[in-house]
Amino acid sequence: MSSHDEDGSKQGPATRLVRTGRDPALTGPFVNPPVVHASTVLFPNVDMMAPGAQKYAYGRRGTPTSDGLETAISELENAEGTVLCPSGLSAVSTALLAILSAGDHLLMADNVYEPARHIAVTTLARLGIRTTFFDPTLGSEIASLMEPETKAVYVESPGSLTFEMTDIPAIAAAAHARGAYVLTDNTWATPYFFKPLDHGADISIQAGTKYLSGHSDVMIGTLAANDAVWKAVKNTHGNLGLCVGPDDIYLANRGLRTMGIRLDRQMQSALTVARWLEQRPEVKRLLHPAMPSDPGHAIWKRDMKGASGLFGIVMDGWSEDKTKAFLNGLGLFGLGYSWGGFESLAIPAKIHRTATSWEAGGPTIRLHVGLEEPADLIADLEQSFARIGNLA
Ligand SMILES: *Cc1c(COP(=O)(O)O)cnc(C)c1O
C-alpha cells in the first residue's frame, strides 16, 4: 500500500477487501502476490540459520504467498493473527486442539457443522476431553451449563442446516466470566458481514472453501485468533505441520477481492427467492435469519451487516419420496455438497440433534443461491413444484 493509504480504518468494507494484504514490501509492485512454490529456503551463512534471524526459513513455516492472505484475513477479522489450514474442517480441529487439553470440558452448540460434532465425540473424547451439546438459542443462560473444567464454548451462527442464530456477545460474556474461550465458525457470514472477535469471540474460523474462494475449486480454511489465544493457535498449527499449497492460497486470495460483490448479490438474490418460497403452499417454514419472520431475526439484525445466499426450507408434511422427486426435478440448482460458489445448489438436510429436538413438520431442504438470475432460479423451483404435482 502507498503511504497515504496506510490507515485503512476509515475505509468501508468493500475498499478493505480490495486493499488488504497487499504490502509491496512483501509482494512487490504486482497487483496480486507472487505464487511462491517453496520447501527449501537458502541462507547466506550459518548465523542466519538461527531461529528468527531470517524472515523466511522453510516453506511449511510461511511464504510471501501465505503471508499475504493471512495478513488480509487478520485485518478483516480484527485478529491478532491468522493461520491457513488445508480445509475448513482442519481449521476447526486445529482450533479445538489448540485450546483443549485432557480433563477439559467443551460446550458445543447442537446445530454446528456435523463433522465438527464428530471431532468432539471421537478424537476429543479419546484425548480425555468431555463435550456437552447445548441449545444454540441459549444466551447468557449458558452459565448454568458451565463446569469448573469448561475451557471452551464452540458455536456457529447461524447454524448449519437449521440456521438458528446464537447470541455470541451473551455467550462470550458468560464464558469469559468463568475463564472459558469462545470459538466460532463464521463461514456463513464471512468477516464481510460479521466480525466475531469484535463481539467477544476469541477465535473465528472460516471454511475458505466457501465464499472466500467462491468458485468451487479450492479447499482451504482460515483460523483467526485474538491475542489471548494466538500463541496457542500458532504453536498447534505449527506442531500439526499444516500448510496450504501456494496455488490454492493464490485462488483464495483472488476470490477475496470479489467476495463483497458476490455476497451482496447473493444476499439479494437469496432474499428474492426466499420471499417467493415463503408464499408457496408447499413450504411450511423458511430458515433464514434475514427474513423478518425468522425467530433469530433480531439477533441477526443487531450483529450482522448482511446475509449470505444459504438458507433452508421446511416442506409441509412431504414424504422422503416427494422430497427426492422435487430435488431430482431441479435443473439450475445442482445437487452437491459445499456452497459459497457462483452456482446454485440444493441438498436434502440430514439433521442430527442430541441436546434439543428438531421437529419442523416436514423434511428440510438446504438451498444455496448463486449468481444466476433470481427469476430463472424461481422458474426452476416452480417447474419442479409443478412436475411433482400431487405426489404423496
Ligand atoms: C463446509 C464447512 C466447513 C468445512 O469446510 P471444508 O473446507 O469443507 O473442510 C466447516 N464449517 C462450515 C459451517 C461449513 O459449511
Bound molecules: pyridoxal-5'-phosphate
Shape: globular
Provide the CATH topology of the largest domain: Aspartate Aminotransferase, domain 2
Rg measurement, Å: 22 Å
Highest CATH level, the class of the largest domain:
Alpha Beta
Strand content: 15-25%
Give the second-level CATH assignment, the architecture of the largest domain: 3-Layer(aba) Sandwich
The strands making up the biggest β-sheet line up spatially as 1-7-6-5-4-2-3
Counting structural domains, the number is 2
Distinct helical segment count = 12
Number of strands: 12
Helix content: 25-40%
- Which structural class should the secondary elements be placed in? alpha/beta
Q: Let me know the largest β-sheet.
A: 7 strands, mixed
Q: Supply the CATH superfamily name of the largest domain.
A: Type I PLP-dependent aspartate aminotransferase-like (Major domain)
Low-confidence stretches: none
Give the oligomeric state. Answer: single chain
Spell the H/E element sequence: HHHEHEHEEHEHEEHHEHEHEEEH
Overall mean pLDDT stands at 96
Could you explain the architecture of this structure?
This protein is an alpha/beta fold. It has two domains: 11-255, 3-Layer(aba) Sandwich (Aspartate Aminotransferase, domain 2), CATH 3.40.640.10; 259-388, Aspartate Aminotransferase, domain 1 (Alpha-Beta Complex). 35% of the residues lie in helices and 15% in strands. The protein has twelve helices and twelve strands. The protein has helices spanning 13-19, 24-27, 64-77, 88-99, 114-126, 168-177, 190-193, 230-239, 246-278, 297-303, 320-328, 374-388; strands at residues 81-85, 105-109, 130-134, 150-156, 181-185, 203-207, 221-225, 283-287, 310-315, 334-335, 345-348, 364-368. The strands form two sheets. Strands 1-7-6-5-4-2-3 form a seven-stranded mixed beta sheet, sandwiched between helices. Strands 8-9-12-11-10 form a five-stranded mixed beta sheet, covered by helices on one side. Helix 4 crosses helix 8. The longest helix has 33 residues, at 246-278. The radius of gyration is 22 Å and the shape is globular. The mean pLDDT is 96. The structure holds pyridoxal-5'-phosphate (PLP).
